[in-house]
Structures are given as C-alpha cells and as structure tokens.
Amino acid sequence: MPGPLFHGLTPEEEALARSYFLRQAYPKGKPVFHQRDLGQALYLVERGRVRLFRTHLGGQEKTLGYVGPGEIFGEMSLLDGSERSASALAEEEALLPVLRRGAYLALIRRLPLIAHNLARLLAHRLREADLELDLMAFEEAKSRVAYALLKLLRQGMGPKIRARQQELAALAGASRETVTRALQELKAQGAVRLAPGEVEVPSPALPEEVAFGLV
Ligand code: CMP
Hints:
This protein is α+β, with helices and mostly antiparallel strands. It is built from 8 helices and 12 strands. The strands form 4 sheets. Strands 2-7-4-5 form a 4-stranded antiparallel beta sheet. A hairpin with a 5-residue loop joins strand 4 (about 50-55) and strand 5. Helix 5 crosses helix 6 (about 165-170), helix 5 packs antiparallel against helix 8 (about 205-210) and helix 6 packs across helix 7. The two termini are about 35 Å apart. About 30% of the residues are buried.
C-alpha cells in the first residue's frame, strides 16, 4: 500500500521516488535524532515503529505519537532547515530509508506531486494539533486519556492496547496517577476493559465520545 507520501503515484513513479532514499537500519531503542539537532532529512518507516516525543525542561517527556510502516517523520526540518522539533526513537528494530534535502529537491523537480503530498500531510497534522490544543485547554484528564487510546488504536495497536501507564501518561500529557484514575472512570463508563498491562477498547466509538466531551 502506498504511504501518504507516495499517494497518487504510479508504481513506476513510486519506485523512482524510493530510489532517492538511502536505506538505514536501526536496532530497538536507538535514537534516530534528538530534539534541537540540526538535520535536513526525512525518514520513511519501512519496518518497525518510531516514537516521537518532546522533552520538557524538567526532563518530562510528552509523546507526540508513534509512526509505523508507510508513514514518514522528520519532514519539518527538511523543509525549513530549523532544529528538530522533537526526538525520534526506534521502539522496535526498524528500517528507515532516509531522504536528504538535496535528493528531496531533485525528486520534487521530477515528481512535483510529492511536494503536494507533503503539504497535505502537514495540513492533516496541523488539524490534529489544533484538536489536541482544544483537549488540553478545555477538557479534563479523562478526555485526554481517551484521546491517547484513540491515537494508539489509529496507529494499529487495537483493540487490545498493550501500553504501560507511563506510556499512556506521556501520550496524554498527564501524570501516572491521573491516568490510573481516568482509566478507572473510563472502565466504569464501559469504554474500556482493564487487565494487567493491557487496556482493551471494545469499540472506539465510546472513547471518542468521551474524548470530545459528549458523554
Ligand atoms: P522534525 O521537526 O524534522 O523532527 C521531529 C518530527 O516529529 C517532525 O519533523 C515531525 O515529523 C514530527 N512531529 C512534530 N510535531 C508533531 C506532532 N504534533 N504530531 C506528530 N508528529 C509530529
């Protein structure tokens, strides 16, 4: 399946686009880059899972999300030449072909659709970031935890999500204690089932309603 970067390309064009990438393998636990690094390259996830996170002054981490096969990350510094906005870490052994700036510029001259796909992807992320801003500003912790679960579901983790409370806390922007409390509330509402180290979401509809304050 073509990823969002290759959307609308013919198989021949996609093969041509892929030839501009350099293949790179990362063992589990290896950082791809750190927040504030300089680096002008984007990565395509061919295999594995990468966590994107920001570190605050006190060392606390906020997980922005996870990227899996077919998805890309690192496009922001590629496009504007500024520092990395977040850190990236291989959560599993990963294959991450990399596209450097020079290769990107040559590629979009041959296949301008790639630049449009990248713009569309950024628009989509901005919409998500706007939504999360609403959740942080107007909704209680339970909504943020429900939204974190939805994010994991969308990233192919569901319906049984194996996540430590610490991971959920980093994704929801809440403390572990708050996550524990929020999960109990979600359980009482029938939105989740809890087992040790595991959260089961029987249907994404209910957490979605909780996240957006509908129930
Ligand atoms: P870059 O700034 O080059 O490096 C960090 C990457 O994290 C960034 O590019 C994006 O690919 C990704 N990223 C930044 N902010 C978000 C976000 N809010 N949600 C998902 N991914 C993000």
